[in-house]
Predict the structure.
Amino acid sequence: MHMWHSAMAMLLQVEPLNEGSNWLWLAVGISVLALLTVFYFAQYVLRSDTGTEQMRTISDAIREGAEAFLRRQYKTIGILSIVLAILIFIGYKVSPRNAPLATKTVIAFLIGAACSGFAGFTGMYVSIRANIRTASAARTSLNRALQIALRGGAVTGLVVVAMSLLGVGLLFFFFGGLATPREVPYQVVGFGFGASFVALFAQLGGGIYTKAADVGADLVGKVEAGIPEDDPRNPAVIADLVGDNVGDCAGRGADLFESTAAENVGAMILGAALYPHFGLKGILFPLVARAFGLIASTVGVLIVRTDDKEDPMQALNRGYYVTTVLAMVGFAVAVHYLLRDNWWFLGSGIVGIVTAFLFVYITQYYTEYRYRPVATIAKASTTGPATNIIAGLAVGLETPALPVIVIGTALLLSYWFGLKAFEGTTIVGISDYAKGIYGTAIATMGMLSTAAYILAMDTFGPITDNAGGIIEMSNQPEEIRVKTDRLDAVGNTTKALTKGYAIGSAALAAFLLFSAYLDEVKEIVRGRMPAPEGTGSFAGFSFNSVNLASVPVFVGAMLGAMLVFLFSSLAIRAVGKAAQYIIEEVRRQFRENPGIMQGTAKPNYGSCVDIVTTAALKQMVLPGILAVGLPIAVGVIFRYFTGFHVAGGVPMINGQPINLIGAESVASFLMVATITGILLATMMNNGGGAWDNAKKFIETGQYGGKRSDAHKAAVVGDTVGDPFKDTAGPSLHVLIKLLSTITLVMAPLFV
Amino acid sequence: MHMWHSAMAMLLQVEPLNEGSNWLWLAVGISVLALLTVFYFAQYVLRSDTGTEQMRTISDAIREGAEAFLRRQYKTIGILSIVLAILIFIGYKVSPRNAPLATKTVIAFLIGAACSGFAGFTGMYVSIRANIRTASAARTSLNRALQIALRGGAVTGLVVVAMSLLGVGLLFFFFGGLATPREVPYQVVGFGFGASFVALFAQLGGGIYTKAADVGADLVGKVEAGIPEDDPRNPAVIADLVGDNVGDCAGRGADLFESTAAENVGAMILGAALYPHFGLKGILFPLVARAFGLIASTVGVLIVRTDDKEDPMQALNRGYYVTTVLAMVGFAVAVHYLLRDNWWFLGSGIVGIVTAFLFVYITQYYTEYRYRPVATIAKASTTGPATNIIAGLAVGLETPALPVIVIGTALLLSYWFGLKAFEGTTIVGISDYAKGIYGTAIATMGMLSTAAYILAMDTFGPITDNAGGIIEMSNQPEEIRVKTDRLDAVGNTTKALTKGYAIGSAALAAFLLFSAYLDEVKEIVRGRMPAPEGTGSFAGFSFNSVNLASVPVFVGAMLGAMLVFLFSSLAIRAVGKAAQYIIEEVRRQFRENPGIMQGTAKPNYGSCVDIVTTAALKQMVLPGILAVGLPIAVGVIFRYFTGFHVAGGVPMINGQPINLIGAESVASFLMVATITGILLATMMNNGGGAWDNAKKFIETGQYGGKRSDAHKAAVVGDTVGDPFKDTAGPSLHVLIKLLSTITLVMAPLFV
């Protein structure tokens, strides 16, 4: 141990127990290294064979469609970001007390937005090129196909986590974090908000696109024209394949970019509260732990290999286990060097890891047909679509129960570990609350330490899905289809697991983020008040109260829950509207060009891609603006409900009351929106997944198999589940994180 | 004014400004008078003609089925009540500090349960006899049919409100409320809990019964055998008609019995907090205002008459307007005599009335096909069941938005009126919070003052529905069917409106009830602590904090929201399971007795009624136990999370910390469960109603009319909506009120 210790110290060229600024450079260095690895993985993918001419034609169409969508989407998001940046700037400038922070906040916001965009773009750039190469490799070696798909996915995974780490690390440095470490974390929150803002629109736009194309293609192709899925005669088929990339790949990438960015910032803010004990190291711990997680994930990706016999899922799981173990080792090293060997914190980290595992397991239980829930839905399909839907909704409504219990236990346990970690030490200026909350923050870090690997597995999904589509459309022999189908099935599983993981981490991160919000409000108030006479400290004041018994706070909570329902409604309706355009276009093509159905004329794929692109971008704006506008409106309006506080609820500094009712109402808005969001998103993700697999179960020959009445009923359920699990559900993950960061950034307006 | 004042005083034989015990007798007297009116209405109905022999056969079958169900249901509920009563008794007795209250609480609980049962039984006794008389009257006069149905419904309405008033009033008296008015309201809470407990099972059991019978009859009759609705060849048709009575009539009656009982008790507790200002009169105000509302409702019912040309809905609306105006006058009189002419409180009352109106209007917007929401669902039906379901879910998720805004505004406004009412007066021992909350309590009273009339309109629904069924099954001429169809259509509207009203009042009452809970906890703590030295008062202690920033409190909130989802899941699944039994039984009868379908043999209606009775009663137990058990478990377990409080969050008496973390976690459990419950129930009620009416809209000839593909799709939506709007949604109203009363009663276990 001692040798390793010295070697590490030499490597860093620092004294082992110095104030720790070198740890910042270590984290930054590792993220740069990760970006180099990304370059290597990208080269590995791009060097591979691109198959036949016919395959390239299809792949090119997908690539062009996806790139066109991303270009136009980023343009729209860019405009919205600039508008918002101006609004933030004005909002900060009007009050002389916030004015000094205006520029830093806007810069952080724009950099966060740009990094998220860059990460999404790079990830998708490689994914839409990896699909054809995976397809081509499947013609010779399953192992090679698996490796191309996973390494293609790893580009997204690594670039997302590395960019968020690099962004936060460098902003911390340039904003002077090494000189004034306790203040700078608050100034970096704009980065998280920029990331969430882009993530919201990326996930919404991508989610609407993918399901509008899917539902539209299915309804008019399978139902009206009676042609199979992925049939090249369907003009919407390319739009459908494009959708897999922009929704699952770019969307989920933005989602997890946002998670890691916001969690980095939030944990640093909480670390700042522990400054008297850990110094700079407590603030840098999240970055270092995350950096070690990057290394762990890279190793995990590199060791994955399989042969033609093994279930590819086992190979991916091996990689996951290795990543997990290495991440834990890295965590232990970070605790050793940065948190003074306080092993209670490792306990918190392990709580996070176990939470991730349990979420993965619970998601499987509710979405795989080996278990009761999916089996009930399949059985209910025999009495028609109505009972299929009723059974699916019953399963969906049941699914949040276990995840809520897991999250609740994880929060309580990690909080307790945080308290235990400081037991016996008496440190002036650190509250018990700050100690416990730091424990929950570390659990979140534990949960997110494997994020890059999980994301690689997730992006594996759309790549193999697309590979299957390319094989199908280019009429390859049956034996190759079997291979890509095996990979595709694994991809479906990994996509479902990632959604469970994303929501679990969002839930855990949310508590961390609103603790950071409370801290932020406290700092704002302290900054504004004249220093108390004599003492020069504000020991008497802290803002830890979000009192639901207060009427405005309760009303804020109701509005938060309402936002979640209304946002979901808008997202689902957007899919319906956008799908309508596709349906009309496909009908038009079939009508005007009868050669398409006879296979003598090529359909116009491009027009479908164009139409769904325009429609999805148009439809994402309203829910997006609602999500951003409502919390700000609550905070600004509820400030005027002074005198509505409960008795003794008005905080005082120097005997002077402070009006925090706006800030408090926003906090309850945020917390109850988060709770409702977790429940509704879990219901939608798992309910949708269960419907999907009930259909697949029947397709294996149960209850009459394909083309039976039960199958028709199950198809209805699957179609209903689509906007649940791929649009509204995932958008809700992002929504709840956006609410956390928006309130952090806008806090000065609420006080 | 002065003359009226003196006349009133003479009538009551009291001095105008005495301590007010005579007001108690006035309220009790009016409720006895209301019960006499019930007797008159019942006589009016029972005296009427019972039609032909064939009609009587059908009606007898419905009556027997409903009575058999009610008998068995009450037996089950009776056993559960006794078990719970024993548990409450033991729970109170184990702690020496609660022991003195054990007997009173158990007595109040059992009387509440018995009153609720009696009210439900009487209401249904008349309803299932009014149906055939309405049908018979429809053969000669629409006015007479309308009056029989409404007065039959008024039996339920008046008996429910009068029994809850009488029960609370007499318990208050017998528990010594005139001697110790500040303590006794807390001892009456058991009455509210008894009422909620019965209501939960009545609504759950009735809701499961009605929808299992409906879904079962439809699936096997309409879909499999291809016979129309209400066809006498369908063995489940009587069970279906029985269901309307046990679900809509007995279930909703129990629901509103619970609302008025719990609201009476809750408002009295809050009135106790204002004792220094208003004395006994502030505590009795809720009872007096409710009593005046009873008179207003009776007059409203009596003036309703129509002719053969007018839309019967207009006649019912006239009665509603008269009731509303009279209730407001009664409210003003009560404010004048009991609240010292403080007209701000009348303002709060008007807020409640306006809230009721807005809820009725919003419900219409979302469920009538004149407006956008239903029209979208109907249009979406043209592309099949999947798009119908997606559109319906989008509408459902949208529906809570406006109600939440209305409730939020009503709470803030009535709270502000409460503060205003005391402006300028300085009263020792009354906090601003108590003043404001009393304002919200009065708004709730305003909303509930027309409850008896609303309930009469609601029960009108199943009576006319049944009347239509009897006319249909006894092959009456077309012109009579047209008349009963007109009444039936009105009944559908009134049923939907009542659900909106019930949830609005539940939402408003909920805030009142958890304020009462906080007060109750405060009193428990004060009762247990030794009186502070010297002062003899606990001025330094109040329990007004439900701090979501505290981890256990947040976890409690998550669990509360989870309960709502899980409970809904269980309720919906129960319908599916119970329907399965019906389907199998009907299939068996068709198979074993082919004469049924040919019309040569009579099906065995009784066996279907038996089977669904057994199934519904069995299925109601699990969700019921979950609803009762989880909040108690949270309160008892979370007591052990001491040390998890936020800084400064531990309340002190005489420098001694008090462990309130259990009580606080239960409070947030309750509040967030309430918020989630309101949202989910609104979504389910209105979504279900919208699906139903989208089908009816298509049946008017839109999109191809009956038997078109669009209609088939709309039937799927309607079937999915059934357990939403008639089982899970209404059961959620009761659930959230049950949570309020259960925490009130069990509070001593959480501290």
Remarks:
- Confidence is low (pLDDT under 50) at residues 9-17, 534-539 of chain A.
- Residues 441 and 512 of chain A are 6 Å apart (CA to CA).
